[in-house]
Design goal:
Layout: H1 3-18, H2 22-34, H3 36-67, H4 70-91, H5 108-114, H6 119-132, H7 139-168, H8 175-191, H9 194-198
Length: about 200
Amino acid sequence: MTYEVLIALIGFAFASSITPGPNNLMLMASGANYGLRRTLPHMLGVTLGHTFMVAMVGLVLLQVFENYPALNLMLKVLSASYMLWLAWKIANAVPPEAKEVTGKPFSFLQAAAFQWVNPKAWFMAITAISAYAPQDAGIFAGALLVAIIFAAVNLPSVTVWAWMGVQVRRWLGTARRLRIFNVLMAVLLVVSLYPMLMG
């Protein structure tokens, strides 16, 4: 991998990791509802789950999708259904009369598994592998290198979103305000499906 390609990959990893998407919106909601410490497994699950996904896309899945295009449609339907269910869960995290948040944050495994139904994660993985994986390093080494770079850039990026959620909590001192915030996060999560459904 040349220096120019490396810088371009880091730039792509940062831009795609720091911008709003399902992971970041859910981390912000989790930070606001549960705090940074309880959101840490969710953050690590996003980063390591996506790292594994990037590696697998590079090693196996691009070829599978080329041979079986119908799998792409199936993935979109599954992803959209699951994310709508998550949006409903986020919107209802605080009952109208509740004084404290109900439910619990995503676990490490839940966050890692979520990457496989997250449209933005798929876009990031496929683009990174197809555009930046070094061809001369071999399939395995190229996929692994791209995955490691994504991991190094992704964790600080998702931490920013969880931290912003914690800061927002200062202004969400009542159950009513927290409920409004959660509904807003749920709506934004649904809106984030638009590019996938229109693509």
